[in-house]
Every structure is written in structure tokens, then in C-alpha cells.
Amino acid sequence: MFGPNLTNDQLRNIVDEMSDLDFARRVYCQEMAGSYIAVGLFEDVLISAMHMCDRVKLKQILGDDIDRWTQSPAKKTQLQGSTLGSLIKILEGHAIAEADIRYLKWIKDKRDYFVHRLFHEGA
Asked: pTM here?
């Protein structure tokens, strides 16, 4: 929508010329985009934390005879290939506090609504 060389003054002029409804739509879209990015970053941080945690084991691909240096990239690859719901299920099996699991599920529910349902309702 905006070129890479847009100045503050040019943006102010564009915003000043918007109707109240168009301005509200723009702010709404900015907030939605920010939320989407924040949840994506959250999921990446969760994967990194699970990858570093020795308590989280991924039994399907890691055998006892694999060198630890080989296991680390394999673990991260499997975590990155997992859905947020799958990541939560893995954590549920590792004595994570119930309140933390509820919070992760709450974030997942909000993300799922945003990704799968929000635009079907004509938002």
C-alpha cells in the first residue's frame, strides 16, 4: 500500500484525508496484524524453550543410541513442524503446571479463532 520511501508528512496527509470509518478500519487491521505477529513470535519462543529443555523428550524420532549433537537439530526440527496444539500436548506430558497449560490453551483458542473463524463471520 505504501512505498518504501513514504515520509511522515506523506503518511500524515494520507491519514488526514481518510474518513473516520477508513481510519478505524486501518487501525483495526494494524492491531490484527500486530496480534498475528505476536502469536507467531510467541510460538517461536515456545519452540525454542522446549528445544532447550532436557525434560521434553520426543520419543518418536530420538533413540537412545543417537549422539546428543544429532538429537538437538532433530528435536528442533520436529518441534518446528508441530502445530501449537501438538506442542501443548507434548508439554502436558511433562509435568508442566496446569495453570501454564490452561494459559497456552487460551492463547491457542484465540489464535485459532483469528486464523480459522474470524473472517468467516464477516469481521
From this structure: 0.52
